Amino acid sequence: MDSTTKARLIALAREAAGKAHAPYSRFHVGCAVMAEDGSVVTGANMENACYRLGLCAEQSALTAAQHAFGLAAITHVVVAGGPMVDGAIAGEDVITPCGGCRQAIAEAASLSGRDIVVISASATGSEMLETTISQLLPHGFGADVLPG
C-alpha cells in the first residue's frame, strides 16, 4: 500500500473516532476497513450504560464491510483513537484492536484466505504500527477447527 492510501485510511479512522459515542470512558476509537477493490467503510465505538452492550469500532466497521462488500474482500483494517481531552481526541499511544476484535478480524482473514493488514494509529495519527492479524493473534481459534 502506498503512503498516500495509508494516510487516507488513518485519516478516515481518526474522523470516525470523532463520531464515537463514548460518554462513559471518553475513549474514542474509529476504524476504517478497505476491500481489495479500494472501497472503504468506517465505524466507531458505541458505548451503552449497560457497559457490556457497547460495540467496538472494529466490530462496527466489520459489520458495515459485510454489508458493503463482504468480509472475504477485506485487505486492511485501520484503527485510531484515544481519550477525549478538552473536547479533542488526544494521545500519542498507538491503539490496537482488543482480543474480541482480533478474533473478528481473524474470521474475515479466514474467509478471504489472506493475512489482513492491521494498521494501528494514535489519536493524532503521528504514531503508527503496521502488522497483520496473524501477528496480533498468533494462535487464533477459527472455523477450521469446528466440525463442519
Would you write up a description of this structure?
Strand 1 (27-35) and strand 2 form a beta hairpin. The relative contact order is 0.17. This protein is an alpha+beta fold and 148 residues long. Strands 1, 2, 3, 4, 5 and 6 form a six-stranded mixed sheet that branches. The protein has helices at residues 3-17, 57-68, 99-112, 133-136, and strands at residues 27-35, 40-44, 74-85, 88-89, 117-121, 128-132. The protein starts with a helix and ends in a 12-residue tail after the last helix. Helix content is 30%, strand content 26%.
Question: How does the SSE layout of this entry go?
Answer:
Elements (H helix, E strand, L loop, with lengths): L2 H15 L9 E9 L4 E5 L12 H12 L5 E12 L2 E2 L9 H14 L4 E5 L6 E5 H4 L12
Parallel strand pairs: 3-5
Antiparallel strand pairs: 1-2, 1-3, 3-4, 5-6
Number of strands: 6
Average pLDDT confidence is 95
Instruction: Note poorly predicted spans.
Output: none
The fraction of residues in strands falls at 25-35%
Secondary-structure-derived class: alpha+beta
* Count of discrete alpha- or pi-helical segments spanning 4 or more residues: 4
Q: For the record, give the distance between the C-alpha atoms at the N and C termini, rounded to a whole number.
A: 36 Å
Report the biggest beta sheet as strand number plus sense, adding barrel if it closes: 6 strands, mixed
- CA-atom Rg in angstroms: 15 Å
Helix content: 25-40%
Helix-strand pattern, N to C?
HEEHEEHEEH
Principal-axis shape: globular
